[in-house]
Amino acid sequence: MSDNTRTSEGLARGLRVIKALRGKTLNGVSNGELAKALGESPATINRCLNTLVAEGFAMKLETGRYALSVAMLQIAQAHADEMGRTMNRVNELTQRVAAGSRQ
Predict the structure, then answer these.
(1) Calpha distance 97→56 (Å, rounded)
(2) CA angle at residue 53 from 75 to 83, to 5 degrees?
(3) What is the DSSP annotation of the chain?
(4) Which residues, in sequence order, are CB contacts of 84 under 8 Å at separation 6+?
(5) Where would I find the H helices in 41-69?
(6) Element (H or E) spanning 34, and its range?
(7) What are the backbone dihedrals phi and psi of residue 17, each rounded to the nearest 5 degrees, phi first?
(8) Theoretical Cys-Cys bridge with 45: which of 15, 16, 35, 101, CB 3.0 to 4.6 Å?
(9) pTM of the full predicted structure?
């Protein structure tokens, strides 16, 4: 990125929290664990988590820990589905091209 590119540090911090929640959907992660892992204060992580929960990207589990929300997992699944359809289409075209080259 060039020096004159403007970015949002708050958004970047929130995205780092999302990345840190990856793979922790069943058991979640505590605020303190996130703060330590990301080198942020618990208060800062709490603000990020509150925003992510309010926007539907994270959820607070019954244990008090945080995980990616169902909506976020649905986004990931939609992407995986799209990639699967794309690969199926590419494979179909590849087979048709290969079949035509044998004639």
Answers:
(1) 44
(2) 10
(3) --TT----HHHHHHHHHHHHHTT-TTT-B-HHHHHHHHT--HHHHHHHHHHHHHTTSEEE-TTS-EEE-HHHHHHHHHHHHHHHHHHHHHHHHHHHHHHHHT-
(4) none
(5) 42-54
(6) helix 31-38
(7) -65, -45
(8) 35
(9) 0.77
